[in-house]
Write a structure and sequence with these properties.
Its EC number is 4.2.1.17. It comes from Streptomyces hoynatensis. Helices cover 47% and strands 17% of the residues. The protein has 267 residues and is of the alpha/beta class. It has two domains: 206 residues, 2-enoyl-CoA Hydratase, Chain A, domain 1 (Alpha-Beta Complex); 47 residues. The strands form two sheets. Strands 1-2-3-4-6-8-11 form a seven-stranded mixed sheet, sandwiched between helices. α5 packs across α6. The chain starts with a strand and ends in a 10-residue tail after the last helix.
Length: 267
């Protein structure tokens, strides 16, 4: 296990056996509230993980038992001048973009509260895993702003425009069972597992497959969504061409015919 700390509050761990990379929020005293410093370090950590060829899947998680991330650090914001607030906004946008732009499949492990910008971090991942403690929501209008980390765009793509409008306009918090039913969570951990444990299990299953194939599939899914069908199929074909003549594809076919587990070159 390789581990690197980014500032005081962000850790990246890469398990060289499972090929899963974890980005861990570790600001327990503030329930991982998104300060300028935390956002900057998260951006840096995700950039490094994106470039790490050993990591096939990313898991965004937390060390706090009761919170994934409670959103913006309102105590910090209360003391910011308008100019400082604009600079803070730029740093936060960079953090959300860094998560959204991870090239490998990304899973958010949402145990406890994921509110406002915290839930937007989860929405920036491909899959969201919760557990019975999960509470999610976008309450920004209750403090005079709007979701600004992608929530107004990512949530409708997940649950539909009308449902997203209801959730954003009411600013309500949604508990685990309803969140799973509405599609705000993709998987709910069972049997006493935490969201983090279930997310790592899922990540390990995904990471067993071709890293070239996984990245190309994510690129096709992300790029093609929202396009008309014909344009989307062109996106898919371009992604297919990147894998069809790759070393991973040759190894996958050979392993299938030889009835063995593939040893992916990742090229």
């Amino acid at each position: 296990m390789r581990e690197r700390r980014y500032g005081e509050w962000v850790v990246v761990r890469v398990d060289e056996e499972s090929r899963v990379g974890e980005v861990v929020l570790d600001r327990p005293g503030a329930m991982n509230a998104l300060s300028t410093e935390l956002a900057a370090r998260l951006t840096e950590a995700c950039g490094d993980l994106a470039a790490d060829r050993e990591a096939r899947v990313a898991v965004l998680t937390s060390t706090h038992e009761r919170a994934f991330c409670v959103g913006a650090d309102l105590k910090e914001r209360n003391g910011l001048s308008d100019a400082a607030f604009r600079r803070h906004r730029t740093v936060l946008r960079g953090a959300f973009a860094a998560v959204l732009d991870l090239p490998m499949p990304a899973i958010a492990a949402v145990g406890g509260y994921a509110l406002g910008g915290g839930y937007e971090l989860a929405l920036s991942c491909d899959l969201i895993v919760g557990d019975p403690s999960s509470v999610v929501g976008l309450p920004e209008v209750s403090v005079g702003v709007i979701p600004g980390g992608g929530g107004t765009q990512l949530l409708p793509r997940r649950v539909g425009a009308a449902r997203a409008a209801e959730l954003i306009f009411t600013a309500r918090r949604v508990h685990a069972a309803e969140a799973r039913e509405l599609g705000l969570l993709d998987l709910l951990a069972e049997g006493g597992q935490s969201a983090g444990e279930a997310a790592l299990d899922l990540a390990a299953r995904i990471a067993a497959h071709s890293p070239v194939g996984l990245r190309a599939a994510k690129r096709a899914l992300r790029t093609g969504f929202g396009l008309d069908l014909r344009a989307g199929l062109e996106v898919e074909d371009a992604a297919w061409r990147t894998v069809a003549f790759s070393a991973d594809r040759a190894e996958g076919v050979a392993a299938f015919n030889e009835k063995r587990r593939p040893e992916w070159p990742g090229e």
